[in-house]
Specification:
The structure holds 2 protein chains of 2 kinds. Chain A is mainly β. Chain A contains no helices and 11 strands. Chain B is mainly β. In chain B, strands 2, 4, 5, 6, 9, 10 and 11 form a 7-stranded mixed sheet that branches. A 4-stranded antiparallel sheet of chain B has the order 1-3-8-7, with no helix packed on it. In chain B, a hairpin with a 5-residue loop joins strand 7 and strand 8. Classes of the chains: A mainly beta, B mainly beta.
Amino acid sequence: AQSVTQLGSHVSVSEGALVLLRCNYSSSVPPYLFWYVQYPNQGLQLLLKYTTGATLVKGINGFEAEFKKSETSFHLTKPSAHMSDAAEYFCAVSESGSNYQLIWGAGTKLIIKP
Amino acid sequence: KAGVTQTPRYLIKTRGQQVTLSCSPISGHRSVSWYQQTPGQGLQFLFEYFSETQRNKGNFPGRFSGRQFSNSRSEMNVSTLELGDSALYLCASSLVSMNTEAFFGQGTRLTVV
């Protein structure tokens, strides 16, 4: 069965520092990969997704992620953290041709220190 | 365009009661999925409806049910509420499937006392 592992339930970085949120998945076929963000008391919003093609994907708010098949990873990065990035981030995976559902990671809460 | 609308935003119910939550998807979206979100369990998939038919179902007891209407609006119902049903219930809509971009509502915060 597919699974998604997000390393670290909480990640704390200083404002202006690099943000790195880790996501590893298990999948027997090339997957679709997603990062969603959830701000307090809000629903989830798509940050970026990988389906096919270029393995470095750029998303909204300056975030990007790189699909590394050999490492089964899809880590999310942002060069310089901003206070407004404080939120919970979810990684999700769906195998192409599957029953369309997403398998979700447990989420990582990003804390930005001033 | 209008986003996904969930009503009500907050709800307090007593154990044993039943509750109905509503979700209006983005116009033109035919797929509606429901999730339960709790601090301990994260995002748990309840079910997905597409063109009025349940297409996928998660591992929840039969007390959790849903339906979708011809205008794609969806409702979920929880009968015989338990304290453990207290959660944020999220609805997501997409054009065809969650493999494309899904748009989430703000959720309904259900508290069972």
